[in-house]
Structures are given as structure tokens and as C-alpha cells.
Amino acid sequence: MHVNFVQGRVTEVHPDERYVTLAPHQQGQPERLDYDYLLIATGPKLNFAATPGLGHTEGHTVSICTLDHAIEARDSYLEQVQRLEKGERLRFVVGTGHPGATCQGAALEYISNIHKDLVRRRVRDRAEV
Ligand SMILES: Cc1cc2nc3c(=O)[nH]c(=O)nc-3n(C[C@H](O)[C@H](O)[C@H](O)COP(=O)(O)OP(=O)(O)OC[C@H]3O[C@@H](n4cnc5c(N)ncnc54)[C@H](O)[C@@H]3O)c2cc1C
Asked: I need a labelling partner for 114 at 20 to 30 A (CA). Which of 71, 74, 101, 125 fits?
């Protein structure tokens, strides 16, 4: 079986002619990629605005749904850890934005991660999770 992996960002789909266009890697020409069948699996589109207060720009929450978000959440978490280490008491609320969200498992795992990390840092007694 021959599998050819091409990494690139699809910018156009041409279903009649059966090809997609990939954004150029550098400053070259867009690349044409012909297909027999096309499966579109571009992942979720995050919609923080659907829940008032949610979101890291308009709202008051951080997210771990993309790499950039997760790095921001890590930085924010470490700031809260510093406050705990100075003696403050803090509450961490972890969850999903909507009951229909399919990522409750990730939220539960994140609670476990925070719990374990705060125990390791000996500040768990000052945090409500
Ligand atoms: C923190 C976290 C933990 C999770 N834990 C679990 C777990 O334990 N178990 C579980 O089952 N699920 C888990 N999930 C959910 C799981 O990751 C997703 O359901 C799954 O990755 C969705 O797969 P997908 O292929 O549909 O989309 P994605 O994994 O989002 O993949 C979509 C891909 O399409 C690419 N793409 C988008 N636009 C274009 C374009 N124009 N051209 C080319 N490529 C494009 C994106 O860059 C991405 O690589 C977790 C999710 C998160 C955020």
C-alpha cells in the first residue's frame, strides 16, 4: 500500500475538478493536490462567545483547547501557584463551556493534574478545586 503524506494548509476545494489547493510553504506557488475522495476533518471551531463570560479575550477564562491556549493556561496557573505560595487562598474552577461539549473527560483530567501538582508543591490545602 502506498501512502503519501503531504503537510499543508488547504485554502481551496474544487469538488468538480477534484483537487484542493495548498497554501505555498514559503513564497512559492500554491500547490495543487488531486484526489479521488476527499475527507474533511479540520477539527472543532471554538465558540467561546456562545457562553457569556467564557473566553480568554472577551471573557474571564483560560482554555487548554489549542497549544497556544494551553501555554497561556499554564502561565496563568503558575501565577496562581505563586499567590498560593505567598499564603493566599484561591479557588480553581475547571469545566466545559456547554453541557453539549464533548471534552468533559479532558476537564476531569485537568482537575486531577491540578490536584496532583498542588499536592506536590505543598499548597493544596490553600486551594479549592
Ligand atoms: C486537552 C484535550 C484533551 C483531550 N483528551 C481526549 C481524550 O483523552 N480522549 C479522547 O477521545 N478525546 C480527547 N480530546 C478530544 C480529541 O482531541 C478530539 O475529539 C479529536 O482530536 C478530534 O479529532 P479531529 O481529527 O476531528 O480534529 P483535530 O484533532 O482538531 O484535527 C484537525 C486537524 O485539521 C487541521 N486543519 C484545520 N484546518 C486545516 C486546513 N485548512 N488545511 C489543512 N489542515 C487543517 C488542524 O491543524 C488539525 O491538525 C481532547 C481534546 C483536548 C483539547
From this structure: 101
